[in-house]
Design goal:
Layout (H helix, E strand, L loop, with lengths): L2 H12 L5 H13 L1 H18 L10 H14 L16 H21 L27 H4 L21 H6 L16
Length: 186
């Protein structure tokens, strides 16, 4: 038995309408699940409370008045929305604004994407100018490409770092001997 079958059979169990085999299965399920026992006890208490209540007396005109109220509610005209018709949940004005914004976003998206069909990009405003880059004729780096010691700029022209590549490779790392005191050396 599962929980759904159990809940369907609670009222039949309390009213003694279950057959003996089904009643036995139901009671075994209650024994195995204490929270189900609490649920049956709660339903039993609720039924006993409702049965012990006094009957309420009403006037003879109560049913007629109730029927009239129900009929008047049925015949009452529905309130129309103050906004009138809606399109997909939007008022006409908001639907127009939303449509314009959507069209604007789509238009912007198409204009920002590059044109893959032609060689020119759609980012430029007209024809693109093709610039041909020529190899410099008198570049110091191009004079002797196999010389490792020569930089792109000569030593005289470069005031910032005049160290050649070979000199940088051969330099010893900076020594910290006697210049730094570490915590564990104290």
């Amino acid at each position: 038995m599962n929980r759904y079958q159990f809940e369907d059979q609670i009222s039949d169990y309390l009213e003694n309408k279950l057959s003996i085999p089904k009643r036995k299965i139901f009671e075994d399920y209650i024994e195995a699940n204490p929270e189900c026992r609490e649920l049956v006890d709660s339903v039993r208490t609720t039924v006993d409370t409702v049965n012990s209540m006094k009957a309420v007396s009403v006037s003879s005109r109560f049913m007629d008045g109730l029927k009239q109220k129900i009929e008047s509610e049925k015949n009452k005209p529905e309130k129309l929305s103050i906004y009138g018709n809606t399109y997909f949940g939007f008022t006409p004005f908001n639907a127009g604004v939303f449509s314009l914004a959507l069209i604007g976003f789509i238009w912007m998206g198409f204009n920002l994407l590059p044109d893959f069909e032609s060689q020119n990009s759609s980012f430029t405003a007209g024809k693109t100018q093709h610039v041909k880059i020529q190899k410099p004729v008198h570049s110091p780096a191009m004079l002797s490409p196999t010389n490792e010691n020569q930089l792109a700029a000569t030593k005289n022209d470069d005031k910032i770092d005049s160290t050649t590549i070979r000199e940088k490779r051969l330099q010893k790392p900076y020594s910290m001997d006697g210049k730094a005191t570490f915590v564990k050396d104290k």
